From TrEMBL, chain A:
InterPro entries named in the record: WD40/YVTN_repeat-like_dom_sf, Xyloglucanase_GH74
Name by which UniProt lists this protein: BNR/Asp-box repeat-containing protein
Source organism: Bryocella elongata
Highest taxon of source: Bacteria
One Gene Ontology biological process: xyloglucan metabolic process
From TrEMBL, chain B:
InterPro entries noted in UniProt: Beta-grasp_dom_sf (IPR012675)
Species for this entry: Bryocella elongata
Protein name as it appears in the record: MoaD/ThiS family protein
Length: 371, 101
């Protein structure tokens, strides 16, 4: 029988949650790496028992871990993610040049075809790759040395590379996003990169349509339609049908189009989920009501999906990597909150149930569909 | 070769699977904080980068080094460690700042 495994990264450890295909009764593990911030965990699509985890701390820096038994036991792997050559400078908040400084790994993206290959998106923005299951890392430095890089500026959360999208149909293609530089694409396996921000409008920029400088919060892609990308920008929900070359706004009837997460349905490439957040000054849901909005038309027309979610006095946030979908026939949707709740919809957003209520603040949620 | 006791914060002991409060490491003379940490990292590679930055080799901001009750965190990494440390009567203490939520 099918089952699912949720990988939840929190501000104070990682949790592995398991359920059968009904997704009703959940077993929650003891905390892994208690006391550490777990920015992200993700399993290999090739070997689901192999899971990579980013463990960080303001005291002890970056640690990376790997499990080869589905998250039961873990072993540290190399944390030596070194910038290639002498790192240059990017723009600091005050506009002055600031040297690149490694801080942490925000996102781990295992290869779609090789369990030993994994990508790591880092702050300050850079993309690293390991082909030996994390025993060593190499920077794909063509990104950081892109001609636009000296003008990149950190967002409020740091200059983080937080989104890595691989395309099984086009193994040389990688799409990444950086706050607050924007989205970038490589069509040569990470050797060279180009900004893909045409159509984005960011009112805070001197030139709102600048090629870079946009605070992209997250990007989602359904593998069945890899040229179609959906973006939750700082403000605005965007859509591209040419792999990011051009974007159009699809916020439509959303009550607010600020937010962090965005994801697509596993089987319906035009079905998209977002969690609107009141504003960039007030990072909680509108009117204290936690609402997932779903579009079944690829944007513009959105409907609130609230059955089972708190509809009063709810003032949590849902961070950019804290939503995921499973691949069961009835697509499950999951998200975690800064209040430590994890919610599951076993029916594509129609109804929601609480999976965990009192975890530390959730930084990331991934799900593995097993069996 | 002196055998030096190193007291580590809980999180680093867990990371390196060190039982008890301390690691115990043989360090070639003349032992210093730098050479002791080099030996510690050679024995426990998972600690590389957690006490000192990989590139700059500087102490992480929220850690301090204490030697026989004195703060040796600033500019004393290459001073010879005192006899009490070399003889194992006192540990070299790597102390994490008490901060955070």
């Amino acid at each position: 029988m099918s089952s699912v495994r949720l990988l939840v990264g929190t501000k104070k450890g990682a949790f592995v949650l398991t359920a059968d295909g009904k997704r009703k009764d959940w077993i929650i593990s003891q905390p892994h790496f208690p006391g550490w911030e777990l920015y992200h965990l993700k399993g290999s699509p090739v070997n689901p028992d192999r899971i990579y985890a980013s463990q960080t701390s303001g005291w002890f820096g970056q640690v990376l871990q790997r499990s080869d038994d589905g998250g039961l036991t873990w072993n540290p792997i190399s944390n030596k993610l070194l910038y290639d050559g002498v790192p240059g400078t990017h723009q600091w908040y005050d506009g002055t040049p600031h040297p690149w400084e490694f801080k942490r790994v925000w996102h781990l993206e295992p290869s779609l075809t090789d369990a030993d290959t994994v990508f790591a998106g880092a702050e300050d923005a850079a993309l690293f790759k390991s082909t030996d299951a994390g025993q060593s890392w190499t920077e794909l430095s063509g990104l950081r040395t892109n001609a636009t890089a000296p003008g990149w500026m950190p967002g409020a959360g740091g200059m983080c590379l937080h989104t890595v999208i691989l395309d099984k149909a086009n193994p040389d293609r990688i799409v990444i996003a950086i706050s607050a530089a924007g989205a970038f694409r490589s069509d040569d396996a990470g050797a060279t990169w180009k900004p893909i921000n045409k159509g984005l409008h960011s009112a805070f920029l001197p030139n709102p349509e600048a090629p870079v400088g946009h605070c992209v919060h997250h990007i989602a892609m359904n593998p069945a339609k890899p040229d179609t990308l959906f973006m939750q920008k700082h403000w605005h929900v965007m859509r591209s049908d040419d792999a990011g070359d051009n974007w159009t706004k699809v916020s439509g009837n959303l009550p607010t189009d600020f937010g962090f997460v965005i994801d697509t349905h596993a089987h319906e490439p035009e079905t998209v989920f977002v969690v609107p957040i009141k504003s960039d000054s007030e990072h909680f849901p509108l009117d204290g009501k936690l609402q997932v909005f779903r579009s079944k038309s690829g944007g513009n027309e959105w409907e609130p999906m609230t059955r089972g979610l708190p509809q009063a006095n709810c003032y949590v946030n849902v961070l950019r990597d804290a939503m995921a979908v499973d691949h069961l026939d009835d697509c499950g949707v999951y998200f975690g909150t800064t209040g430590g709740q994890v919610y599951c919809s076993p029916d594509g957003g129609e109804t929601w149930q609480s999976v965990a209520e009192n975890l530390p603040g959730v930084l990331s949620v991934e799900v593995q569909t097993l069996g | 070769m002196p055998n030096i006791r190193i007291e580590l914060p809980l999180h680093l002991r867990r990371l390196a699977a060190i039982s008890g409060y301390e690691a115990s490491i043989d360090v070639a003379a003349p032992a210093t904080i730098t050479s002791t940490l080099d030996a510690l990292e050679a024995r426990y590679p998972m600690l590389e980068g957690t006490i000192r930055d990989h590139v700059t080799r500087k102490r992480r901001d929220f850690l301090r080094f204490f030697v026989c009750g004195e703060d040796w965190s600033f500019g004393r990494n290459d001073d010879p460690l005192p006899t009490a440390i070399l003889e194992g009567k006192e540990p070299l203490i790597v102390l994490g700042a008490i901060a955070g939520g």
